[in-house]
Amino acid sequence: MGCGTSAATEAQGRLSEKDDSVKAPSPALTMKAAILIQRWYRRYVARLEIRRRYTWSIFQSIEYAGEQDQLQLSSFFSFMLDNFTQISGNGPDLISHLLDPALTEEEKQATFEGVEVSDSYSGPHISFPLTVSDTNALLSAFKAQQILHARYVLQLLYETKRFLKQMPNIIYLSTSYTKEITVCGDLHGRLDDLLLIFYKNGLPSTDNPYVFNGDFVDRGKKSIEIIIILFAFLLLYPDHMHLNRGNHEDHIMNLRYGFTKEVMQKYRTHGRQILQLLQDIFSLLPVATVIDDKVLIVHGGISDMTDLEFLGSIERQKIKSVLRLPKSFEDVEAERGLEKICGQAGSLRSAGGPSGGTRKRRCRRRKPSSGSSSSSSSSSSSSSSISSPRGASQVWSSPLPSPRVPSPTDLLQLPFLDSIVAVASLAPPREEAGWKQIVDLLWSDPKKQDGCTANTFRGGGCYFGPDVTRRLLQRHGLQLLIRSHECKQEGYEFCHDGQVITIFSASNYYEEGSNRGAYVKLGPDMVPRFFQYQVSRCTRKLTLHQRVSVAESSALKSLKEKLFAHRSELMAAFQEYDVNKTGCISITDWAQATESVLKLDLPWRTLRPRLARLAPDGAVEYQSCFEDVSAGQPVPQISPNLAETLYRYRTDLEIVFNIIDKDHSGLISIDEFRQTWKLFSSHLNVDVDDSAIDDLARSIDYNKDGSIDFNEFLEAFRVVHKLDTKEKQQG
Amino acid sequence: MAEERDSAEALVSEIHKKITDAFEVFDHEFNKTVDIREIGTIIRSLGCFPSEGELHDIIAEVEEEEPTGYIHFEKFLPVMTKVLMERKFCPIPEHLLMQAFEVLDQQKKGFLEPEELKKHLTQEGEPFTREEMEEMFSAALDPDKNVIFYKDFVSMMTIEET
């Protein structure tokens, strides 16, 4: 932007008024100089602030887009249930792999008692009932990177499950016996943050009660350790340690966000048992805590329908995953009847999901009209695979009587997916209302303006305004709502005129230096006191610019990877605008094309300088978007289109492969690979040649022994950032 | 004439889009409003250098009749467009900035003691807050010599901006 105004010239003139011979400049001059420096610096800080903001937006929108993706995975499983009969020949085998008996009868009967701890085990030993020395042993062991033996894990989980069964849905606490209660937010598998909290604030004890507000697992690498520690303290101090359920205490989320994988990797033999137990435990976690009848603590938030009395009465343990409707009390029969259902999946279709399912539909925030065909309240039959999983559910009114048609899928049960047993339109309204209440508690976010709208960004829960908060607090005589669920720069944030606190305890959540963690303490006076911290690898304090730059660079890398993953679609969109095939399009066109393909709500024009180059005439050279990112290793001989698709769905494929790979050898058969890919691509409507897949499968069977090392295979679909490589070369 | 009009319209259109983008970064509720306290950041990010006083004037123009703490996009857009079209508060050229530092560096040492700089910036003009001063020091202060080599500082910040 040019600068030709008279004001600037005047200022320029004035400053150069100084005469070499004059030693001390006039006060007027120094003031002008000071003002100039202040203005300039403030602008610099404002620019940093903008960068910090959009960095934050990038992280959040990619995170939420990831959460949307995982719905695809769960709907993929529904899809398979529906369609496996259509897959010729090999279908049932593949399905039976994926939907293996959760536990053999043997496994079911076995308890932790059958699990031997060998002499060579060097990790911690614990005994029940637990004592302080056990929790201390666990803490020291985990600090030393040890792993707790599966036997103890199973025993701990059995005891925890037994304990939680007696708990009500909502826990009522009082501060009268203690000075203060400490409330912590999301930990997401970050053990260092938990240890830091214990270091700063002391371990849980009868004098030092804690409430942990959900999301203990996923994303971080030490989720199982956190769970073990929290459950151990729970059993040790049952009246002074309290855990709320978060939206990640959910096996379907765990499949996508890393907890399932972590458990299977650390516990190869007993992983499935552990996960099965955890599924029950998660659904048994209380959904809310109330302190002194004044402070309500829930993981996500509330809605205008939230009713604490009703919540107290529902059967929370039926809601294994909020992504599936609760089982009806007919489910016990239904599980046995499942195989019959599966056998008739092709013919039975839901008459339509109840309107509660509309919330599950993903819509972009800004344009509610796009892709919202099932978010209207109509109950149109939604058998498309991308829609709400409930669209794929089956209907039955009562267990089918025997004799039944024998089906190749007899004895099918669903391991991690047992709650896929859907109850469609015949779900008792009360059950569904209860389910909705819980979804609201675990998934909602506060917003600034009044009202209560569906949280289409997350696909569950709602956005609740200050009026909703006020009404709820008033109705139940409460003063304050504490929730978590959203990462905050300072680890905590007030909103709704001080009626709501968000507390988040995982520091550096997006990236080193991205945010602090915090916990809050409440005494009888109900005045919250906040304590912040940040786990840090470096001791030197970073400047504002450095902090912003590190986070920004990481966010931009993720964004560039997204661009790369959608390269062909983007190029097609760009080329539509580039009528004359110049390789350039206007900034506006570039921004529009990018937004329409990626569907990420980001300030593209502001980001453009970081993502794409301009030609001398000011137009965007759109090819330059893809320059920085390239495939890591030589990709097997496949078409770029296929490579891109594989890259994009890498994570989902990894999950499915891991499920198939029952013995965790890292190998699956060519056949399994082919079938998985075929199912996946038909579900996603990806246009891939069968022969291309066959060629691919053959080419990655390096040993020609009919098996594929899928980790090696997936490695080919990582990307590297060229700038990183350059830096490494420069050393 | 028609061409001029077209290009003027195109210019306005570009400016509108720039403003919209910057606004959106702060529009958390996606309802075309931003918190009034963010206006300064938005304006500065668009490349303008209003003083605090000038900023207050702009805010007064875009505020609601009865201040709600929020600024609506419909009010912000025309005012900001005018600011950008008239190129008010345009950026400060680097050499001018250098001269400003040199003015403060009375003994022409080539650097400034933190106390000197602090005195000027927190007491004169539109004074820095303590946080602003500390933040600037953390970026500007040479860790070994504990002074501010302003020439390097200005160059570094100018590069960082691009």
TrEMBL record, chain A:
It is an enzyme of class 3 (hydrolase). Keywords: Calcium, Hydrolase, Magnesium, Manganese, Metal-binding, Protein phosphatase, Repeat. Its cofactor is Mn(2+); Mg(2+). It catalyses: O-phospho-L-seryl-[protein] + H2O = L-seryl-[protein] + phosphate; O-phospho-L-threonyl-[protein] + H2O = L-threonyl-[protein] + phosphate. Its EC number is 3.1.3.16. Residues 358-368 have a biased composition (Basic residues). Residues 565-600, 648-683, 688-723 form the EF-hand domain. One of its GO terms (biological process) is detection of stimulus involved in sensory perception. GO terms for molecular function: calcium ion binding; iron ion binding; manganese ion binding; protein serine/threonine phosphatase activity. PANTHER family: SERINE/THREONINE-PROTEIN PHOSPHATASE 5-RELATED (PTHR45668), SERINE_THREONINE-PROTEIN PHOSPHATASE WITH EF-HANDS 1 (PTHR45668:SF1). Belongs to the PPP phosphatase family. This is Serine/threonine-protein phosphatase with EF-hands.
